[in-house]
Amino acid sequence: MPISWRAAGCCAFMTLALTGHTLAANPDDEELTVRLGSEWRLVKNDQSRDIRTWAKLEDGKRYRSFKIEVQLDADLDTIARVLFDFDNYPKWFWEVREAKLLKTVSSTEHFTYIVHNAPLGLPDRDVILHTTIEPATPSRPLALVKTHSAVNYLPAKPPLVRMLAEETLVRFSPMPDGGILMEVEGYVDPGGSAPIWATNFVQRSAPYAIAAGIRRMVKLDAYRNPGTAPRYSLGRF
Q: Which positions carry the signal peptide feature in this UniProt record (predicted)?
């Protein structure tokens, strides 16, 4: 059973408190303690699942940015069915308690509402995401999905803390072997008062979990052979 954000956050805090600088002896834990620079630093390289994640700390930002690369054995329609099936986000997206579509602006633009579980002892977070899609075409074999936080789209819902940022740029491009490469660059600011160790731990762990989750979901028959078009299209290569 996947470890929860709450339990993971608690474990991370206890590990940092008990082991201090000795944490760096484990390569996977070293990334939590080594100060990041402005260049991408490899965090995880899972060759068996074709998943790679990176992190960096950009000037002027409170928290680290992340990057993901994962190869998906699926076509664009299958990926779109997973990506835009918001009701099922709790089954695979990182610590999502609730997700729902708020408004469809057009076939390439929408607003969604998401509630994330927070680490133990911290209030849960919510975020409104404004998403735009640039579908792939035969002449431009690249699909783009961009999200940014629409902080004031809905009134605050205490005790939930409104996230200040959950920004992503997702690229889908064809692979020579027929699969699709998903590349994600993003940044998260949880808002409110959140210890940097907790946010950094989440931003280290969440990208890999999300990549593994979508990789698992696109293999399900419910998304591969549903007999229906996706809610929003990623286009065609």
A: 1-24
